[in-house]
Amino acid sequence: MEENYVYEERTGLQLVRMAIEMTCPAGVLPSEEAVNALYGPLPVHEGEALAKAIIETVERLSRCQNDATPRR
Predict the structure, then answer these.
(1) Are the C-beta atoms of 45 and 39 separated by less than 8 Å?
(2) Are 20 and 31 in contact (CB under 8 A)?
(3) Which among 6, 12, 15, 43 has most CB atoms closer than 10 A?
(4) pTM for the model
(5) Do residues 46 and 13 touch, judged by C-beta distance below 8 A?
(6) 8 A C-beta contact, residue 42 and residue 12
């Protein structure tokens, strides 16, 4: 049962990774190999990298939006 849980967990993380890679700016998410080297091989480490990529994307978008806002 534990093996199925980990498999399903990794499958879900792969779907999130694909969505981030398709929509977020290049460079916010390290490759899977880099995640393993930087954070570790467990699904929680992939989740941490995905979360950081989402946060970085939001910060970049916020900066772009603030830069585009006309000053009074």
Answers:
(1) yes
(2) no
(3) 43
(4) 0.81
(5) yes
(6) no
Give the pLDDT confidence of 37-57 residue by residue, as tens digits.
Answer: 999 999 999 999 999 999 999
**Burial zone of 55 (CB within 10 Å; 0-12 exposed, 13-18 middle, 19+ buried):** exposed
Map tokens 């989402």 to a residue: 54
Residues 6+ apart with CB under 8 A from 6: 43
Residues 42 and 10: their CA atoms lie apart, in Å, by 9
Q: What three-state secondary structure class fits 64?
A: helix
Asked whether the beta carbons of 49 and 38 are under 8 A apart, the reply is yes
Q: Which of 34, 43, 48, 50 lies closest to 8, judged by CA?
A: 43
